[in-house]
Amino acid sequence: MSQKKIIEDLKKLNANQDIDLPAYGSWPASKHCFDDEKVVNALKAALAAQRPLLVRGEPGTGKSQLARAAAHVLGRQFVSEVVNARSESQDLICRFDAVGRLAKAQTLKTETTDDAKIKAELKPEKFISPGALWWVLDWKSADEVHTNSEYQLQRPEAPKGWKPEHGSVLLIDEIDKADAELPNGLLETLGNNAVTIPWVNQTLGNGTSIPPLIIISTNEERELPAAFVRRCLVLNLKLPAADKLEEWLVKRGELHFGERCPADIRHEAARQLLKDRKAAKDLGLTPPGQAEYLDMLRALALFGEAGEDQHTMLAAISDFALKKYPVLHGD
């Protein structure tokens, strides 16, 4: 069944698709354009090989949204986990509330001497909260554990009409924020598309469910372990070269805002971004990218609807959107 599902999904991924992404969980409504055949082929390769896709690139190139757009096109559940400096690999699988279980044990000792009742109330699975990897590897068991647990953390939102057999897409976002222990701790899980939950002695995945498409983003702030990178397919997501970037940005602006931001405004904003990108790169700073460009157009679209002159407001706000370091202001 899983091979048939993967073949069906491969046929759904095509270049030259403009996609409307509805609001989903904490993600706002947006648009995505699959206009690069290399990106589409990378997604297809990850699906077919059943390997994670590691997406490298500077901030603002659309790495995170790529996963959400892929899930939408494939009709799969979208689950995301944003990594931070305190994240551990175990958090992606599940969290165990040892403190809560200890407190429960102490309370029960004052209430009853019935050993059978105490044992039933202290079952480990009643103090487990499934993590992102558990949800995408085996939704049904994750949902059952979540429902019966006293330690209920976030439950992913399922799209209308979605069923576990439709599969999932998992985004592990900004993995470079964590120490090397996190990617190293995921080697076996990502290599086998399976994991064993120690407290319940249950193996998830391993051919028993539709293999998830796992997309992992990095901003290259920290080098990832070589063994981890070897487990992945790698997509280097870059903005077009400077001589092609203006037109590329203008088309992206049109996709998102249409005539709410006329062509001359989109071009002027793109030229300003090119100028500020060069200044940032010359100083060794992270340059503004697509995200900053779209933020600026979003503001300008509303200024226009409020009766403000968009050319005047572009000159007034570009410093706030594009120059994010004091040195770029001469400070």
Tell me what the structure shows.
With about 325 residues, the chain is an alpha/beta fold. It has two domains: about 1-90 and about 155-235, P-loop containing nucleotide triphosphate hydrolases (Rossmann fold), CATH 3.40.50.300; about 240-325. Helices cover about 50% and strands about 15% of the residues. The protein has helices at about 1-10, 35-50, 65-75, 90-95, 100-110, 115-120, 130-135, 140-150, 180-185, 185-190, 225-230, 240-255, 265-280, 290-305, 310-320; strands at about 15-20, 30-35, 55, 75-80, 95, 130, 170-175, 195, 200-205, 215-220, 235. The strands form four sheets. A five-stranded parallel β-sheet has the order 4-7-10-3-11. Strands 1-2 form a two-stranded antiparallel sheet. Strand 1 and strand 2 (about 30-35) form a beta hairpin. Helix 12 packs across helix 14 (about 290-305) and helix 13 (about 265-280) runs antiparallel to helix 14. The chain is elongated and about 75 Å long. It starts with a helix and ends in a 9-residue tail after the last helix.
